[in-house]
Design a protein that fits this description.
Helix content is about 15%, strand content about 40%. It is mainly β. The chain folds into two domains: about 50 residues; about 325 residues, YVTN repeat-like/Quinoprotein amine dehydrogenase (Methylamine Dehydrogenase, Chain H), CATH 2.130.10.
Length: about 400
Amino acid sequence: MDWTIRQGLQGGEWLGLVTGGLRMFRWVRTKSCIAKPRSRIGQWIPILLVVLAAGVWMTRVQTSPMVWRVHSLPDGEYWWIVREDHDQLFLVSVTKNLRPLPIVQRTSGAADIFPFWVYHINPETDQVVERFRSKHLSPMGIKSQRERRPDSWLAQECDQWVVDSQGNLAYALKPAPWKNLHMYGFYSRVDVVDLQQRRVKAKLSMWGTHTLALSPDGKKLYVAAETAGRGQDSGDENAAIVGIAVISTKNLTVIKRLSLVSGMTPNGVEAMVFTKDGKRLFCGTRDGIYVVDTEKDELEMWTKTFLYRNRQNRGFSSFIALAPDEKELYAGLRLAEKDGAVVAIDVAQKKVVRKLELSKTGCTSVAVAKDKLFAACLDGVYVIDIDRWRSQK
């Protein structure tokens, strides 16, 4: 099957087909011998036309593909990162032909700017709406560059942040200068910002910070950082322990530290996804997916299928996505820059239940929007109909 062609009817097309059939019925009734009671053949003509149209529609729906691709993207291999925020979809090009993009220095000597190309995709039509440059990787930073909101001014100095439910406080990640990137990770600290007064209330130093997430009740902040421990457990002072710092938003103190991986070159948490009730936090790394029980702030013991550290096996992409009904979790797979696939993880069964091969190139990230799964591989973006994929058991 050609994955790049969509054959099924969508949206209101089926309604147009039925309407057209009724119009045809009326036209045939006025033009044909159906108006003459003595002719029986004419009575069957509109019925046959409606049956034929319904048969064509059913055939097209049954043969519609489960996977197709987003068009209007550049040729070649790019390290694509697909991100979603409130059903807005952004595709960020981190590299071109697998080479890092050039770095542009600010004249003020402040933190460096990464000139990324961003493709804004309409998740309903799967079409590229616009293309523009941005210094941001996170959808929050990208949207603030294009929209005027009370927190948009944070995009001048920060890339990623979360806002409490009252819209009063923001917890923002401060980017580290490029020269210190190998020491601090992409972010060097968390700023607690008063959005009404536009001032920083507190600064939380974090070593090797990648991302953060605020619990739905706003009481706890989860920060993925290597400050969760450095070498104490392994006995090697030079070894780093990637973990999550759990911070109380009431007094801004670390109430617990969760250690995930130890080693010389650990892969940190780069994506965090809360369930709607806030009882679970899914954390994506290139070593695997970790699940935090947020009521106890402990790691849940899931199947070892989640950990793909063996070089003969494929590794996870760090960016993960939760299905709208929260029954499944999705992640991309890759072996270096090859063999791209996505997996569906059943949350209730706590194991991988399906795997779908997509590309000969690696899959770098996934996102869910409009009941569809968008999987970014090096050769482009694949769109998966979640319901049809679930029915392929």
